[in-house]
Amino acid sequence: MAVCDNCGNDYDMAFEVRAQGAVHTFDCFQCAIEAMAPICEHCSTKVIGHGVQSGEHWYCCAHCAREEGNKGIVDRVMATTTG
Q: What range does the domain containing 47 cover?
């Protein structure tokens, strides 16, 4: 059995996450997210998707990045057709 790095539960189905040269052990995805997910610097939500990075700053979406003064960041680019 392995002990969860986040909650301390000793669990027979724990799993390892390897990130940036370190190995972490968790008993569930919730604990992995709580321990490892960056926090949006605008709204403080956990960034569990791709998120948006501007320099060393993380945001959950382009809206939050723009609210913090990061201009030109968009969630998606609309396709244009020529013709």
A: 38-78
pTM: 0.75
Q: How far is CA 18 from the centre of its chain?
A: 15
In this structure, the answer to whether residues 74 and 43 fall within a common structural domain is yes
Q: What is the DSSP string of 12-69?
A: TT-EEEEETTEEEEESSHHHHHHHH--B-TTT--B--SS-EEETTEEESSHHHHHHTT
Q: Are residues 53 and 70 in the same domain?
A: yes
Fill in the amino acid letter for 44.
Answer: S
Asked if residue 21 and residue 2 are part of one domain, the reply reads yes
Q: Are residues 49 and 63 in the same domain?
A: yes
Q: Render pLDDT for 30-53 as a digit per residue (tens, 0 to 9).
A: 999 999 999 999 999 999 998 999
**What's the gap between Cα 71 and its chain centre?**
21
